[in-house]
Design a protein that fits this description.
3-stranded antiparallel sheet, single chain, 7-stranded mixed sheet, alpha/beta, methyltransferase activity, binds S-adenosylmethionine, 22 helices, Rossmann fold, 508 residues
């Protein structure tokens, strides 16, 4: 570990992921669902991300929300360089990226913030750093301001704790040169313990599943997840206490379904959940009922409950778009409580209308096909579709030419990264106002559309440079002919099903 890293990983850069849940519009939507007032963003706002990693989320937000001022820190200079390069590609003038530790950031003179977000930080840093983070929130968050904080949670993450410790100890004694090799070997070591019939795995079937899941992680994720010396899984009640010391109260979750007990609390535990008076106790019951592994909490400094008229206006003005192609919006779906079958009479007209473009809830509620339904059914249906991530909250107005140009600039930079073989799973949407997920296989097709080369040939050339060939039905494809045929098939599917959605979201 480098001296300045305070036990955190610096040898490998973190993955360049984008988290649309960190967008002000998504945070505000979660608060609307909970009936809690949220910051007005139209006239301007300040937003701080602590530990921004590769900065993809923050940079895309800054590009798509010119009325906001965005700030962020990460103490890893490689991360800061990567984020600055992305910001420079769109000449952003509303974003400041600091190569600061949390302690150093505390000493800076920054304006009061409407939003402070930290994703994948709080359960990986030392107690001192958690205290610095709380001091930053206490110092910088406005009254009425919003904090998003995610963390590895108890009890679902608990079986991983002994595994993390064993990996840390094993890796510390292993002679390989790189951290990725040492933790790769540590993962194999755990596997050999399991195969030797270690009672820990026999008595903890969830640990067996979690162990198997380690092979889904790439090197960067594996190392950033497990190599921190300060790794801990937190109880929600502890985070509530920490936040209370900074004068914040729990206000909801960016996992939208969790804001609706009906969608997220298993029926058998519902009475127990409802009987608990203290919200922290309710969340504890939830975490045990569904064995929560990771939490995405929202806290506010002063919760003001919306009056019925404000709540109604908030919903009516809410503007929405499809988040996935219409054909992928299945009527048999899954929520944290289990399988649900959607009511076609209510869902079909809403989804069909949104396939034409973004609409407000007011416009959707006025659809003739919904006139026979009670108005609350329309809102309930929309909320359900949002919880299923079929829909996304978008900007209140159509994007300006300048916003589209900024999105195009960032997306050209992201697509160039994809063509160079780097991980890209999101692009900037001026319609949504943030980054939004795209199918990983589609990024090369989207890049090809900016060239004269046909999509399959372009994608195959990039894949060959990266030393990758495709598989179909689990079978590896061999040579140019088979790979190109498969890419032709995938390109047709892309054009038919996902390209119209990307166009609607301003990505393509
Ligand atoms: C797991 S990564 C998450 C990054 C980003 N939030 C994301 O989700 O993509 C944790 C990040 O915190 C940064 N970090 C860890 N300790 C820090 C500290 N004391 N001060 C500033 N940044 C820190 C790391 O460099 C890393 O980029």
């Amino acid at each position: 570990m480098a001296q300045w890293s305070e036990g955190y990983v610096t040898e490998i850069e973190y993955i360049a992921d984008c988290f649309p849940d960190l967008a002000p519009a998504h945070l505000n939507l979660a608060l609307l669902h909970r009936g809690i007032a949220f910051p007005e963003t139209e006239a301007g706002f300040n937003y701080l991300e602590l530990g921004f990693g590769q900065g993809v989320t923050l940079t895309m937000l800054a590009a798509m929300q010119p009325q906001g001022r965005f700030y962020g820190n990460d103490f890893n200079p490689s991360h800061v360089l990567g984020a600055r390069a992305l910001a420079d590609s769109a000449a952003l003038d509303n974003l400041e990226l600091f190569e600061d530790s949390f302690a150093e950031l505390l000493a800076r003179d920054l304006p009061p913030m409407d939003y402070i977000v930290l994703h994948g930080i709080y359960s990986w840093v030392s107690t001192e750093n958690r205290a610095h983070i709380l001091a930053l929130i206490r110092k910088l968050l406005k009254t009425g301001g919003v904090v998003y904080i995610s963390y590895n949670a108890q009890p679902g993450w608990a079986p991983k704790a002994p595994m993390q410790r064993a990996m840390l100890e094993f890796a510390a004694r292993h002679g390989a040169e790189t951290l990725a090799e040492r933790f790769g070997a540590a993962r194999e070591f755990l596997k050999s313990l399991e195969q030797a019939g270690a009672a820990y795995f026999v008595h903890n079937p969830v640990a067996q599943e979690q162990l198997a899941g380690l092979w889904d992680l790439n090197d960067a994720y594996l190392v950033h997840e497990f190599a921190s010396e300060n790794w801990v899984a937190l109880h929600h009640a502890d985070v509530v206490r920490d936040m209370a010391a900074a004068k914040l109260g729990f206000a909801g979750s960016t996992t939208l379904a969790n804001n609706f007990p009906l969608f997220s609390i298993p029926p058998d535990a519902a009475a127990l959940y409802q009987s608990a008076k203290d919200p922290a106790m309710r969340e504890m019951i939830r975490d045990f009922a569904v064995n929560t592994q990771f939490r995405r909490d929202i806290f506010v400094r002063g919760a003001r409950h919306l009056e019925p008229a404000d709540l109604d206006a908030g919903y009516r003005q809410l503007r929405l778009a499809l988040r996935r192609p219409l054909a992928d919006c299945a009527f048999d779906a899954h929520l944290p409580v289990g399988a649900v079958t959607l009511d076609r009479a209510a869902c079909e007209p809403i989804l069909a209308e949104l396939a034409k473009g973004p609409r407000t809830v007011e416009m959707l509620a006025a659809l003739p096909a919904l006139s026979g339904l009670h108005p609350s059914v329309c809102v309930d249906t929309i909320n359900l579709l949002l919880c299923l991530r079929y829909l996304v909250a978008v900007q209140p107005t159509e994007p300006t030419v300048a916003m589209r140009e900024r999105a195009d600039a960032i997306n050209r930079a992201m697509l160039a990264r994809a063509v160079a073989g780097r991980y890209v799973a999101a692009l900037a949407s001026p319609v949504v106002g943030s980054g939004i997920e795209v199918e990983r296989g589609d990024v090369l097709f989207l890049a090809a559309m900016q060239s004269e080369v046909p999509l399959p040939e372009f994608a195959w050339a990039a894949l060959q440079r990266a030393g990758v060939s495709l598989t179909r039905d689990g079978k590896a494809l061999d040579g140019d002919k088979e790979n190109l045929q498969e890419l032709e098939r995938r390109a047709e599917e892309f054009k038919k099903s996902r390209l119209p959605l990307y166009r609607m979201l301003g990505i393509a």
